[in-house]
Every structure is written in C-alpha cells, then in structure tokens.
C-alpha cells in the first residue's frame, strides 16, 4: 500500500488551500459581458437585415439596456481590483498577450456605439414604450432626457453623423461584440495554470451561452409574436450548440492528461456534479429547450419561464466556472 | 545571464529559516510569505516511510504566464530572467495569480501583487539571496546558469534533479536535487 501525505507550510489568504482570488463580481461581469455581446449582435444583425421597424424591441428598445449593463460590468471589474486607485493603468497600456487588457479595451470602445445607438432611436423608443405601457415611469425619464439631448447641438451633429454611417457602425459593433463574447471565455482559458479553464472550447462556449442569454431576454421582453417565435427558434439552436460544446469540453478532458482527467472528475462524480448537471444543464438548458419546443408546437407556456431559466442557468454556469476553475490545479508533489 | 536556484531535497530539514529570513529581509507583511516549506511523507508506518522537505518560491520561469497575462505590464522580466512586479503599475486584478501554476504570488495588503524577487537588491551587490545565506544545511544553491562554473551550474551537473509541473510548459528555474 502506498500513501502520500502532503503538508504545505504556506497559508496565504485567498490562495491556500486553493485559489479564491476571483469571486462573484468576476462571475457576474462575465455574465454581463456575454449578455451585452448578444444584445449588440442581435440589434445590429437585424438592423442590417432591414428589420428595424418590424423587430423594434431588438433593434431599438433593447439597446437601452446594453450601455447600462456594460457600465455595471466595468464598475464590477474595477470593484474587484485590489489596487483600485491605480485602475487607470489599465487604460495607459494595451498588452496584446493579455486577455484582461483586450476585455477592458473592448468594453470601453464598444461603449461608444452602445451609447449612440439608443440615442439615435430615442423618439421611436419613447413611442414604443408609450404604446405598450402609458404609465411606465421610464418613459417620463426618457422624454426628459430626449428634450435635453435635443438642445445639445454637438450631440445632434454627432447623431446625424452616426445616422449617415449607421451601416458601418453596425459592422464595427458586430466585430467588437463578437470579440467581447469570445473574450469572456478566453479570459479564463488563457490561464494554463487552471486545468478546467485551459481549454480552447471555452471561447466559443461562452460566446454561445452569452448569445443564448440575450435571445432569452429579448424573447421575454418583446410583445411581437413573430419576434418571440424567432427567438424561441434561435435559442433552441444555441442551446443545442451549447450542450454539444459542453459534452466536447468534458470529452477532451477525460481523454487528456492526468491533471485534466482529475479536473473532469470534479464534474463527473466530484463536488460540482449536482450543481452543474442539474443547475446548469438540466434546469438551465434542457428544460427550457423542452419548454420552447412545446411553445413552438402551439402549447401554452408562459414565455418568461424558459427565458428566466436560461438567464439564471447562464449566471450559475459562470459562477461554477469561476469557482471550480480556481479549485483545479496542477499536482505539485 | 540566467539566474536560477537549486534546492537539495536530501539536505533540507524543514526548519523554515529561509521563510523567516525572506520575510525579514524583504519586509513581507505578517501573515504572508514569498517562500515556503512543503513536507511530503510517502508510505505507511511501519513499512518504508520516506519524508521529503522542499523549500519553494517563485520559479522565475523562462516562459512566464504571469507576464503574458498582465494587462498593464506591471509584471516584467529584468536582467537575469528575474520576474518582478512594479507596484505603481499593478492594478491588483489577480490575472498573474490565476496564471501561476505554483501559486507563488499573493496580494499585498496595500493592494498590489507581491512575490519573490530573487533578492535582486542583494545580488546586485554581489551577495546571495537572503534564503540562501541563512540556510543552516546549505541546501539552497543560487547562481548564474550561463556560467558553467557557478555553484548552481555545478550542482545541476553533478546531481539528478527535477522541476515542479514541467507539463505546465513554464520552463521553471527552481531545480530540486534528488
């Protein structure tokens, strides 16, 4: 019989017995990044396909949400820094090998079209909200903001310039949003030291999951049956791709090195098994997909239910990836 | 110039002098450390039981994931391959900590990330690192790998050695003699 006892004399806060440098703020930040990327992708894609009036929720109204959540994401990122007063150093450098640098810059640059987009449609958004819910308090705030915006001549000049170049803006936004969506996964997969994260599949997986959560949110918010049905179909497709990628991620790990195998076992019998396969896969992917199939077959299903499940599932998925990733490491005997 | 350290696992008694010497020399805040002792016991009593001690620290890797993932360039490499952090450029994002397979970095209470510097202020004056000088069994050996006659080069020529997690691809420069 062979037994090995391993005692480390190091007891550093947030590092031993296993890493916990990143927590909830980073998980929520990654969720927001993916959601924002998805919202921008849908708004710009449907704009380019000439559906601005037909799919008003996607192309016009939902773009109000994007800059707000991006600001929340950036604030969470800065809140999570330990040397907060030096956060501006992030914007004095661009380091091509650092995903963190890519993310901070992409989020900041994408803010520009993300702010201009809803401003260009402010009149239409107000009209849409008035029609749907005349008592909505947000409408009052928007009317007030719109009146102020109309008086700022430079802003109107810039908005006219943006309207003239809207197509180009849409193409640039699509590229930036794709980088943003992939980045939320690449940020983690760049860390070779954490075997769970160190998989190239994380980029496409997080992008798909992000777009899927955006589709769920738009499906929930819209009151246009055609738009809703389309998002049900899109979400169904994205959920299938996501399941496919998750299976491949574990297949790659089980067939990998000892370190990767041990990491996969955290999810295949270990402490993350139940929360991952029930919380994320069953309740966050399979069950909402089932509900969407029922809905597409004309059965009455409350739309908010699959949408909420996909959104919560996406959030739990990011929490699990952040925490489990830090618990996985190389064997240093 | 390529600084490296060898650590003789056959001589180490796990006294932790290197840890305390480092904390004193580098004003490491209480509760933190830049180097540490690891103890491993193999086998079951009364059959063959083997005990090993290791004194570990930053591996000052040739392929540095911490420098690669740093978003500001605060983590950088100085002459001799020593990996250092500039506190005023560090935002404390934790990317380097996540990227280190050896968990050799920690967040200093002031917010920036701190780690072993191979006592670059001492070696600039021709001295050894504090941990090497204090070691009562002389199990720590420091020197320049580019100089074939340096103590560390000789130790690696004369002994069998291994490094930690070579599969991580970091090309670590902390060698363990066995």
Q: How would you describe this structure to a colleague?
A:
The complex is a heterodimer of chains A (333) and B (178). The longest helix of chain A has 30 residues, at 225-254. Chain A has 333 residues and is mainly α. Chain A is globular and about 75 Å long. Helix content of chain A is 71%, strand content 2%. Chain B is α+β, with helices and mostly antiparallel strands. Chain B has a single domain (3-177), classed as Alpha-Beta Plaits. Helices cover 20% and strands 24% of the residues of chain B. In chain B, β2 and β3 form a beta hairpin. The mean pLDDT of chain B is 94. Chains A and B meet through β1 and α4 of A and β2, α2, α3 and β6 of B. β1 (4-8) of chain A pairs antiparallel with β2 (36-42) of chain B.
Sequence stretches where pLDDT stays below 50 over 5 or more residues of chain A = none
According to CATH, what is the class of chain B? Alpha Beta
The helix-and-strand class of chain A reads: mainly alpha
Structural class of chain B: alpha+beta
Q: How many structurally independent domains of chain B?
A: 1
CATH topology of chain A: Formate dehydrogenase/DMSO reductase fold
> Which word captures the global form of chain A?
globular
What's the mean pLDDT score of chain B?
Answer: 94
Query: What sort of overall outline of chain B do the alpha carbons produce when their principal axes are compared?
Result: globular
Order of helices and strands of chain B: EHEEHEEHEEHHEHEE
Count of alpha/pi helices of chain A: 13
What's the number of structural domains of chain A?
1
**Topology pattern of chain A, helix = H, strand = E:** EHHHHHHHHHHHHH
The rounded Rg of chain B comes to 16 Å
- Major sheet summary line of chain B: 4 strands, mixed
Helical element count of chain B? 6
CATH third-tier fold name of chain B:
Alpha-Beta Plaits
Poorly predicted sequence stretches spanning 5 or more consecutive residues of chain B: none
How helix-rich are the residues of chain B, as a percent range? 10-25%
């Amino acid at each position: 019989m062979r037994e090995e006892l391993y005692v480390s004399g190091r007891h550093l806060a947030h590092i031993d017995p296993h890493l916990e440098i990143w927590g909830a703020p980073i998980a929520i930040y990654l969720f927001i990044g993916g959601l924002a990327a998805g919202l921008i992708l849908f708004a710009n894609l449907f704009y380019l396909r000439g559906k601005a009036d037909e799919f008003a929720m996607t192309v016009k109204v939902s773009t109000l949400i994007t800059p707000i959540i991006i600001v929340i994401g950036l604030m969470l990122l800065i809140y999570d820094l330990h040397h907060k007063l030096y956060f501006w150093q992030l914007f004095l450098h661009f380091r091509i090998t650092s995903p963190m640098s890519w993310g901070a810059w992409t989020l900041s640059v994408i803010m520009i079209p993300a702010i201009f987009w809803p401003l260009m449609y402010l009149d239409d958004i107000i009209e849409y909200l008035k029609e749907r819910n005349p008592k909505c308090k947000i409408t009052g705030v928007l009317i007030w903001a719109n009146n102020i915006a109309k008086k700022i001549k430079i802003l109107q000049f810039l908005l006219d310039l943006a309207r003239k170049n809207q197509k180009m803006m849409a193409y640039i936004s699509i590229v930036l949003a794709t980088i943003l969506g992939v980045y939320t996964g690449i940020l983690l997969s760049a860390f070779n030291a954490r075997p769970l994260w160190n998989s190239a599949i994380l980029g496409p997986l997080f992008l798909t999951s992000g777009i899927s959560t955006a589709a769920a949110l738009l499906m929930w918010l819209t009151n246009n049956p055609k738009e809703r049905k389309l998002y049900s179909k899109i979400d169904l497709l994205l959920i299938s791709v996501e399941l496919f990628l998750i299976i491949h991620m574990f297949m790659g790990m089980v067939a990998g090195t000892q370190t990767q195998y041990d990491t996969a076992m955290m999810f295949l019998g270990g402490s993350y098994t139940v929360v991952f396969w029930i919380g994320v896969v069953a309740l966050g992917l399979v069950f909402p997909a089932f509900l969407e199939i029922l809905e597409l077959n004309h059965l009455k299903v409350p739309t908010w239910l699959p949408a909420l499940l996909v959104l919560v599932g996406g959030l739990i998925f990011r929490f699990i990836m952040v925490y489990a990733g830090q618990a996985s490491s190389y064997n240093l005997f | 110039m390529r600084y490296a350290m060898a650590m003789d696992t056959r001589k180490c008694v796990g006294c932790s002098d290197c840890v305390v010497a480092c904390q004193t020399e580098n004003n490491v805040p209480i509760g933190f450390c830049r180097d540490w002792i690891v103890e491993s016991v193999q086998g079951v009593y009364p059959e063959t039981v083997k005990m090993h001690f290791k004194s570990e620290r930053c591996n000052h890797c040739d392929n540095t994931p911490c420098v690669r993932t740093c978003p500001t360039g605060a983590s950088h490499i100085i002459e001799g391959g020593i990996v250092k952090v500039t506190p005023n450029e560090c935002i404390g994002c934790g990317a380097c900590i996540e990227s280190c397979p050896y968990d050799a970095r920690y967040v200093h209470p002031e917010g920036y990330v701190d780690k072993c510097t191979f006592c670059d202020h001492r070696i600039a004056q021709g001295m050894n690192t504090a941990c090497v000088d204090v070691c009562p069994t002389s199990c720590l050996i420091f020197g320049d790998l580019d100089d074939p006659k340096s103590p560390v080069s000789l130790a690696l020529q004369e002994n069998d050695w291994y490094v930690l997690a070579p599969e991580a691809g970091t090309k670590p420069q902390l060698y363990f003699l066995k």
